[in-house]
Specification:
- There is one protein chain.
- It is built from 7 helices and 4 strands, in the order αβααβαβααβα.
- The protein is mainly α.
- It has one domain: P-loop containing nucleotide triphosphate hydrolases (Rossmann fold, 3-Layer(aba) Sandwich), CATH 3.40.50.300.
- A two-stranded parallel sheet has the order 1-2. A two-stranded parallel ribbon has the order 3-4.
- α1 crosses α7 (172-191).
- GO terms for molecular function: ATP binding; metal ion binding; nicotinate riboside kinase activity; ribosylnicotinamide kinase activity.
């Protein structure tokens, strides 16, 4: 969901996980001139066609083929339950975005899937506090953003499995703890 806390959560996880990188879907938006406009005059940014998804997949696969190595561990990482002495061969890529699980070429790549949700009122309130380029036009949230979120969420619920739904109204530290602990468990399983 837009303004659900995806980027904030990803950046906090990056600080406490070893050798962690982030790829943001927002970095793959097409220029405004290439984004379609509907009959109401709304730029259709909340659809897959507004993004260079093939380029995103290439970027992810490139990282997977040669994960960047960083031997520098943050102070926070050194205090976590992941033992820093055993992290040399751990590489974690967080891919963060709003239309990730609806793009079939990405579905084979995920080890874990998290989906942040917000109720309509909270999402609209948060969206109204953000500044976008180009700016949201009047009625854009109700006329395009929210309907597209509901459409893609419904598709996800019908087609994707192993998705962990997270309540975006929960405190950030609670969400961070939940996802971090889940990742630690996954890493432990992979090492066994």
């Amino acid at each position: 969901v837009t303004n659900g806390g995806k980027t904030t959560l990803a950046k906090k996880l990056q600080k406490i996980l070893p050798n962690c990188a982030i790829i943001c879907q927002d970095d793959f938006f097409k220029p405004e001139s290439e984004v379609e406009t509907d009959q109401r005059g709304f730029k259709l940014y909340d659809v897959l066609d507004a993004l260079y998804m093939d380029e995103m997949v290439k970027c992810i696969r490139s990282w997977m083929n040669n994960p960047p190595y960083s031997s520098v561990l943050t102070e926070e990482t050194q205090t976590t339950c992941i033992n820093p002495k055993n992290t040399e061969d751990i590489y974690i890529l967080i891919v963060e975005g709003f239309l990730l699980y609806n793009y079939e070429p990405l579905n084979e790549l995920w080890d874990r899937r998290y989906f942040l949700t917000l109720p309509y009122e909270e999402c609209k309130r948060r969206r109204s506090t953000r500044v976008y380029q180009p700016a949201d036009t009047p009625g854009y949230f109700d006329g395009h953003v929210w309907p597209m979120y509901l459409k893609y969420k419904n598709e996800l619920e019908e087609n994707a499995s192993n998705v962990v739904y997270l309540d975006g109204t929960k405190p950030q530290e609670e969400l961070l703890s939940h996802v971090y602990n889940d990742i630690v468990q996954e890493l432990t399983k992979q090492r066994e």
